[in-house]
Every structure is written in C-alpha cells, then in structure tokens.
Amino acid sequence: MSDAYIQLARQGRNHWWRYLLGSIVTLILSITGGTLTLGLFVAYIANDNNPNTRVLSPEAVAAGQPFIVGVSPLVLYIVYNLAFPFFLLGIYLSIRFLHRRSFRTLITPTRRISWQRISQGFIVYFLLIVVEVSISYALSPEAFTLNFQPWAFISFIPIVVVLTSLQTSTEELFFRGYLLQGIGSRFGKWLAILLPSILFMLLHLSNPEVTTQDSWEAVASLVIYYFMIGAFLAWLTIKDNGLELALGVHAANNIATFLLVTSNNSVIPSPAIFSVSKFEADFGIVILTAMSLWIFSFVVFRLLRHPQRNGRGMR
Fold first, then answer.
1. pTM for the predicted model, two decimal places
2. pLDDT value of residue 152
3. Rounded CA separation 15/31 (Å)
4. Structure letter (DSSP) for residue 277
5. Terminal Cα distance for the chain, rounded
6. Which secondary-structure segment (H or E) carries 282?
7. 203: phi > 0 → left, psi -120 to 50 → alpha, else beta; which?
8. Is the per-residue pLDDT at 29 higher than 70?
9. What is the rounded average pLDDT of the residues 268-283?
C-alpha cells in the first residue's frame, strides 16, 4: 500500500505541535465565527417586532427541533452553515503559515486537482443514495409523506449545492486531509484511518438524528454508521492517492439527503421531496450503507477511468 498522499505532509514543516496548534486555531475560528453569526441572527429575530418569529427558551425547545421558529428552512440552513467559512479559513491559515506548504497538498500530490474524480465520486454516490431511498420507499411507503413544494425546492437547490459543498469539503479537508496526513506521516496509515474516523464519529453524535433516538440499537447503529463512513472516506483517500473521491462522496451524501428526505429530527430542516415524521435508525442502515460503499468502490476502481498518479494508493 502506497502512502504517497500521506507523505505530502513532509513537504512542509511537520512537527507534531504544529498540528495540535493548527487544530486548536481552526476549531477556535470555527466556533467563534459560528457563534458570532448565530448570535447576531438570534439578536435580530429577538428584536424584529415580528410576532411570527421568536427565539425559544431552552425549556420550550422540543428534542430535535430548532430553537428559532417562524423562519424559513432556507434561512435557517444558511445561518447554520455560516461557521464553515471560518473553519475553512482556519485550515488554510494553518497549512500556509504553520506548515508552510501549498493548500493543494491537502487534496492531491499532482499539480492539478482532478475535477473528473470529484465528479465521478459525486455522481456514483448520489445515484446510490437515490437507490437507497427508493428501496426504503418501496418497502415502507406509508412512512413517507410527499413534501414537494416546487418553488421552495427549486430555490433551495443552488443554496444547498453551494453551502453543503462548502460544509462537506471543509470537513474532508480537516479530517481526511489535515488530520489524516498529520497522523499518518508520524504513526502510519492505519492510525491515520482510525483516529480521525473516531473523532468524526464523536462530533456527529450531538446531531438531533442521534440524540432523539429511543433505543440503544438505534444509537449503536448510528455510531457504527458515522465511524464506517469516516473510515471508508479515509481508506478511499489513501487508496486513490488523493482527496477528490472523498470530496465527491461526502457532498453527494449530504446534498442527496437534504433534497430527497427530511424529518422532524433532522440536524437542519429542508424543503425536501419527502418527509418522515422521525428518522429512526436500526442496523439495517448499517447493512444498506455497507452494500452501497462496496458497490461504489467496485464502480470507481473497476469500471470507471481514473487519472494515473505516481504511487497510486493502496494495493
């Protein structure tokens, strides 16, 4: 197995403390920026003299529901994503000034980013999500409610494409780029897959989709799901010797989810085509996702043309 992508970290200053400091700076910028923008929006809603919009007290917020009511899902979606430009800025500043290397080295060992590979990852995985939702609908049509509102949906598409791509790309650059290269260059590729995937999973456990589950099976299945997705994207990055496929997959997963199905306990509500009263997880989601990941790997590595790189990925 090649570790050419991981060794890109050695093009710059690679001391362990730089990764620690860079991670702290990145998280501080993200939290500060997100808190500031959300706080300004909350202050605006609290003082807009509109009886239809209000900020709820913590005691009045139902589990999994937003604490701001009377605001369109589109506006909430924009506000909730405003932390990610600050997150991305933290990654950029860390790479350029702490590590003194090109930002491009978080994505590819070549001179050009492979937009072909990003597109392949996006299209293949988006289609797999459509198939998953179709299977779920065929098995339990009574669980789905048609929620299609043409104008709201069409207005939502460009916003979700831009902001979700920003969100997922930022997460990939941090977890499968910055952390994977930093850990892998010091401790090897397997810890580079394991440790960022555990952190990725832990950070997603605060999502309403997890906190509103009613059984241990549901929570356990989501723990496995988030870890499996994180580990797969890390493995994919090393195998393909670049971050492009992971960028496409993560964007496809989130965009398809926001556009196709929403629920009362979604982390961010959306005017999706279908809605379900509550997202209830079980081990079926783990099995279905594992099958999708296997099919995806077969398609992108066996059936599709992909760019040749020196020392390409895992064997």
1. 0.91
2. 84
3. 25
4. S
5. 5
6. none
7. alpha
8. yes
9. 80
Has residue 131 got a pLDDT over 50? yes
Neighbours of 222 (CB within 10 A): 22
Domain ranges of the chain: 6-303
pLDDT of amino acid 49: 82
For residue 142 the two structure tokens come to: 């009574």
Burial of 307 (0-12, 13-18, 19+ CB in 10 A): middle
> For residue 299, how many other CB atoms are within 10 A of its CB?
16
Query: Per this entry, what is the length of the chain?
Result: 315
Which tens digits make up the pLDDT trace of 204-240? 998 878 888 888 888 999 999 999 999 999 999 999 9
Q: Which string of DSSP letters, residue by residue, matches 220-244?
A: HHHHHHHHHHHHHHHHHHHHHTSSH
Angle (nearest 5°) at CA 313 between 308 and 315: 110
Whole-angstrom Cα distance, residue 91 to residue 143?
Answer: 41
Pull the structure tokens for residue 66: 């937003």
Please identify which residue in the block is written with the tokens 């020196």. 310
- Please tell me the chain's helix, strand, coil percentages from 3-state DSSP, rounded to the nearest 5: 70, 5, 30
**Per-residue confidence band for 62, with pLDDT thresholds at 50, 70 and 90:** low
Residue type, 70: G
Beta strands in the chain (DSSP E): 54-55, 68-69, 145-146, 261-263, 274-276
CB 196 within 8 A of CB 181: no
